[in-house]
Design goal:
- The structure is a single chain.
- This protein has 433 residues and is mostly helical.
- 82% of the residues lie in helices and 0% in strands.
- Helix 2 runs parallel beside helix 5 and helix 2 packs antiparallel against helix 13.
């Protein structure tokens, strides 16, 4: 690939790889640690997952501002250094045995992580040509899929071999390597500071809030975009449930003695399904409209989640999970191809800035609910699967009723725009559907 001839991209790609490694391995190892040492309190593992998602809600309104206003290279690098320091603190916190303090450190580390990827992604955009954006996005999706496939397994393997302290040391090394790779990059000033140098005194909470208000107003006025954003919120519920439910299923129902192994196999099944679905979606995307690639797979996913609650065999459970992953692939492709068409480039950053916090809000809500109701209110995990399935089926019905009509409206508006004569010195037309 020509893109790998760009040394800055290669360094940033591997920096993202090691940064994700440092985040994933420690998080999964810590979940296994809590389930081992506090098996009578499964809510601890759920709360640990909550510490990874909750910070998004608290920092989302300044993440985009920091990436746009400050030196992106320094922001990404310093995120790694700060997380490395917090990892050392976490290493020491384990010896204290204070769960609240450990959760607090995990919360801080996760909050810093939220600043890394917007800055790193912005740097990638600044060093590539427009023709290479799709390749970079595909590689990032591949990176995500790899960690979905192997992340839990690597975390479990490291936890089993070197323990929780060894896993945290691996985290520390990963963050340091990532920081050094970013420091070694030679990135043009325009890519690092596209808006010029900005002083702290020039920033305010009011200006940050104003930017996000503009983004949410644009989303609300664009009915098709609002429908897709609503879908991201629902998918956050799915992510929250599947971050912890499969582990609980293996620990308390299907395989108490080998739950780490089967939790790893779950992640591999879902990740391989996602890779398979992405390949299928790429092949058929030109033959189907985006809403068709969304409605049918979402509906099938809802039915399959119902089946997860009924089955008591590990092999069937993992097979269903693989098919669910296959259904998710076309959905990601449809949304990824649709969003740039309906969002004006001028507002893409502010619109994108709402996706992660909405997903994390839904994920945090789901994890919080699970922590409260299981096993105190609901003793059977199956009912949690049924609840998630009902929500997913509701989304499929909602999309089936709304997306075809909104899609036709968008196509009609695009045809009308193409018929209009082009004029010079006109302001960009930020269309809404």
């Amino acid at each position: 690939m020509k893109i790998f001839r760009n040394p800055n991209f290669v360094k940033l790609f591997y920096a993202a790889l090691f940064s994700q490694m440092g985040t994933t391995i420690g998080n999964m190892a810590f979940a296994f640690y809590l389930l081992d040492h506090f098996s009578h309190q499964p809510s601890y593992a759920t709360l640990a997952e909550l510490m990874y998602s909750l910070p998004t809600i608290l920092v989302f309104f300044i993440v985009g501002v920091v990436a746009d206003r400050f030196d992106r290279k320094k922001v990404a690098e310093n995120c790694d250094w700060i997380r490395a320091i917090l990892t050392v603190v976490l290493f020491g916190a384990l010896f204290t045995g204070s769960i609240p303090f450990i959760f607090f450190v995990l919360f801080l580390r996760s909050a810093v992580t939220k600043f890394f990827f917007p800055a790193e992604n912005s740097l990638v955009q600044g060093i590539l040509s427009k023709e290479q954006y799709a390749q970079a996005a595909g590689l990032n999706q591949m990176l995500f899929s790899i960690f979905m496939v192997f992340g839990v397994g690597i975390g479990a393997a490291i936890y089993k071999t070197v323990g929780i302290h060894g896993a945290i040391i691996v985290d520390f090394i990963s963050f340091v390597i990532s920081a050094l790779l970013i420091r070694s990059c030679h990135i043009p000033f325009a890519a690092r500071l596209p808006n010029g140098k900005v002083k702290w005194k020039d920033l305010s909470i009011k200006s940050s809030v104003s930017d996000f208000q503009e983004g949410i107003n644009y989303i609300i006025k664009n009915k098709l975009l609002a429908s897709l954003i609503f879908g991201f919120f629902i998918f956050g519920l799915f992510n929250g449930a599947f971050a912890i439910l499969p582990m609980f299923t293996m620990k308390y129902e299907m395989s108490p003695d080998n739950y780490e192994w089967y939790a790893s196999i779950f992640a591999i099944s879902l990740g391989l399904g996602l890779l398979t679905g992405s390949g299928i979606g790429t092949l058929i995307s030109s033959k189907f409209k985006p809403h068709q690639l969304m409605v049918i797979p979402i509906f099938v996913t809802g039915l399959l989640i119902f089946l997860l609650g009924f089955t008591d065999k590990v092999s069937i459970f993992l097979g269903i999970v693989f098919i669910i992953g296959t259904c998710l692939g076309p959905i990601n492709i449809a949304i990824g191809g649709w969003m740039p068409k309906i969002v004006h480039p001028k507002l893409m950053g502010r619109v994108s800035g709402w996706i992660d916090p909405l997903m994390m809000l839904a994920q945090s809500m789901t994890l919080g609910i699970i922590a409260v109701i299981f096993p105190k209110v609901i003793e059977t995990i199956d009912y949690l699967y049924y609840g998630i399935a009902i929500i997913i089926l509701f989304v499929a019905l909602f999309y089936a009723l709304t997306l075809p009509k909104l899609s036709r409206a968008l196509e009609e508006k695009e045809r009308n725009l193409d018929r209009k004569p082009k004029t010079k010195n006109t302001k960009p037309n930020i269309r809404t559907i």
